[in-house]
Write a structure and sequence with these properties.
- The structure is a single chain.
- The protein is an alpha+beta fold and 101 residues long.
- The protein has a single domain, classed as Thrombin, subunit H, CATH 2.40.10.
- The chain is built from 1 helix and 7 strands; from the N terminus they run αβββββββ.
- The protein is elongated, with a radius of gyration of 15 Å.
Length: 101
């Protein structure tokens, strides 16, 4: 078994035990969710608070790789994907998401 295949098998066990369910493109998927980060940015009209967090998904569970601008649901809330880290043949795809305003 290749190192990437072994990592994917081990990651699948971690997701099964610790994964939180998200909905992406109508598909319910287990994901590892990071702690939300908050920041304040200077924008037209003053400072704006924003928050984001990362969502790690198993590549093997995805029908297609998500793209920036897509939305997903988690814990009854809606989020927009603002960054995608996709490095084949790695087992994980990492998304950075922000709440929809």
């Amino acid at each position: 078994m290749s190192p990437h295949a072994q990592i994917a098998a081990d990651a699948a066990q971690i997701f099964a035990e610790f994964g939180k369910e998200i909905t992406l493109s109508g598909q319910n998927l287990p994901a590892l969710i990071s702690e939300p980060e908050e920041s304040v940015e200077l924008s037209a009209g003053g400072f704006v608070a924003s928050g984001n967090f990362t969502v790690k998904l198993l590549r093997n569970n995805l029908r297609t790789i998500p793209s920036v601008g897509q939305t997903m649901d988690y814990a009854g809330e809606h989020f927009r994907i603002v960054r995608v880290s996709n490095r084949p043949p790695h087992a994980l795809v990492t998304l950075t998401v922000e709440p929809l305003e």
